[in-house]
Amino acid sequence: MVKISKEHYNQILEHARNEFPLECCGLLAGVKTENETSIEKIYLLKNIDQSSEHFSMDPREQFATLKQMRTEGYMLVGNYHSHPYTPSRPSEEDKRLAYDPNMIYGILSLKGEPVLNFFKIIENKSVEKLVCLPI
């Protein structure tokens, strides 16, 4: 289960709308237990690919963000990106690039009404849509 506040959802939505028609991307910080991930802070990053079909995060920006995250007392729990024209589900590329089975992967679709889903992806084989509980 993933817990996300309306405020954090709105941050991701605003980021996606501001970057449209490009994919946006960012990191998710929070608290994780065996069955639950609570998102406590959103870190907006730049899509250096400048593409509407895929994204890449700048390694230097990621490193600086992870350092800031630790300084602020948060831990990395996952990442997110937008799909400007496609549904909120992992693409083949998303599955292939899901490097850590312990992370959650958020995908916000802007196709029609915005939809944000979170997934657990294991070794490009298993994709589990997680229950999202707004708080």
UniProtKB/TrEMBL annotation:
Domain MPN: 2-135
Name of this protein: MPN domain-containing protein
GO molecular function: metalloexopeptidase activity; zinc ion binding
GO annotation (BP), single: proteolysis
Classification lineage: Bacteria, Bacillati, Bacillota, Clostridia, Peptostreptococcales
Coiled-coil boundaries: none
SMART domains named in the record: JAB_MPN (SM00232)
Xref: SUPFAM superfamilies: JAB1/MPN domain
A Pfam short name: Prok-JAB
CDD domains recorded: MPN_like
Record-linked InterPro entries: JAB_dom_prok, JAMM/MPN+_dom, MPN, VirAsm_ModProt
Record's keyword terms, sorted: Hydrolase, Metal-binding, Metalloprotease, Protease, Zinc
